[in-house]
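Section 5.1 Outputs to date
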Amino acid sequence: MALMGGEQKRRLRLAHQIVDGLRSDLADRLFAAACYGSVAHGTADANSDLELILLADPSVAPVTAHRIADGIQVEYDIVPLERMLRAATRVTPEWGEEADAYLHPLVLWDPHTLFSRVCEAARAVPPEAFAHALAESWWSAREYAAKLHGARMRSDRAGFAFTAFAFARLSALRMALVRQTPFSSTRTMWREAASWMPELASLIEALARGEHDLAARAAEAVQEALDVFGRPSDPAIAHVIPK
C-alpha cells in the first residue's frame, strides 16, 4: 500500500476538525460524514480542495457552505438523509460529475453505516435511467454542434473556443452515461474521458493547443461517435422535459 502523502493527511485532519465542530453544533441531528473527490480517492495534492458531505436529520436545513481553512478551499454539504438517498437514485446529464460522491465516499464518521445505504441506492439505478439522461442530453449535444459550426463559419475564434469546451464537457458527461461510470473528480475528468474515447482525446488536445481547425474536425468525429446514444426515433417529435 502506498504511503499517504502529507497533503492528503493535512486535508483529512482538517476534515475531522470540521466534522467535530459541526457535530458539536448539531448534536444528534447530524448522522454521518464523508469526503468525496480527490481526498476520497487518496490523490490530494497541494492544489486540491476538500469536499465533504454530512448526512442529517430532516429538521436540519440543507446547505452548501464554503470556507478557506489552513489555506485549503473547503466545501461541505449538509443534506437530510432521505434527500441524499433520493439524489443517489437520480440520473441526470450531470451524473458523471455527481455520482462518485454517492458511490465512492471516504467515510469519516458513520455509526449507523448510512453511507452504505447511499451507495446501495446508487448502484441499484436501472439502465433505463441512463438511457433517459442520454436522450435528454442528445438535444444539447446537437445544439452545441450547430453552434460550433456557426462560430467556425463566422470565424468567431473566441465563440468557437468557448462553445467547443462546453461541447467537450457535455460529450465527456455523455460518455460517462454510456459507460455508467462516474469521474473520480472534476480535476481528473478530462484525463479519464480522453482514455475512454480517442475522438474526445483529440478534441481536448486540439483545444488545449488552440488548434481550432483540428478541434473542429475532432468535434465532428465526437458528435458522430456519440450521436447514436439517446437519439430519438423521430427528432421532429418534441422531446418534453418536465420543469
